[in-house]
Amino acid sequence: ILAQVCQTRCLCPQEPPMCAPGVQLILDDCACCLVCARQKGEACSEISPCDTHRGLNCDYTADVHQRTGVCVAHEGDICLLDGSVYQNGETFFPSCKYQCTCRDGQIACVPHCPLPRKVAPQPEASALGSFAMAGKHSVYLTNCIEQTTEWGACSRTCGMSISTRVTNKNPRCEMVKQTRLCIVRPCDKHSRMFLR
């Protein structure tokens, strides 16, 4: 049982494990070693986490001490928008401009119209959905639903590496990939030689 919990010092193999086809190599929940993601029905723990990219999480209910569990499919949380409830995986149209999908309590939307048309602003029209003049450039003002993912795991287990996320928080409301530097922990002498 003690081998299934995080140790105070990382004891990782020199070579990352070889995973079965289709199984991802991920960082364990101790943020220590690269391991093969556990699949549905397999035993899991802090050092053997489930494949969250496939919607799996470690169910510890069978173990009173919560040291080991079994990977189960996460049902997903519901989404609430303007008083309406949407089930995980449900696709809906909050307006004629967007098609949205509920994903585990988060709402992801894409434009429903192929491309917005430029129309001269009407004095009685609201700012949403029309063009406004800003200097010599026309700027499309839209009711963009902001979407930003969490920052991903660092690309290396030690030393300087990168983390990425996707967001549409920009003037054009387009999904773009952002990158930042990150560090999980410093590399020891042996790890530095292995990463070169």
Automatic annotation (TrEMBL):
Alphabetical list of Pfam families matching this protein: IGFBP, TSP1_CCN, VWC
Gene Ontology CC: one annotated term: gap junction
Molecular function GO labels: growth factor activity; heparin binding; integrin binding
InterPro entries (alphabetical): CCN (IPR050941), Growth_fac_rcpt_cys_sf (IPR009030), IGFBP-like (IPR000867), TSP1_CCN (IPR043973), TSP1_rpt (IPR000884), TSP1_rpt_sf (IPR036383), VWF_dom (IPR001007)
SMART domains hit by this protein: IB, TSP1, VWC
Main localisation: other
Protein keywords: Cell junction, Disulfide bond, Gap junction, Growth factor, Signal
Ranges of residues in domain IGFBP N-terminal: 2-74
Localization terms from the record: Cell junction, Gap junction
Keyword field contains Ion transport: no
UniProt similarity note: Belongs to the CCN family.
Protein name: CCN family member 3
Organism from which the protein derives: Oncorhynchus tshawytscha
Lineage of source species: Eukaryota, Metazoa, Chordata, Craniata, Vertebrata
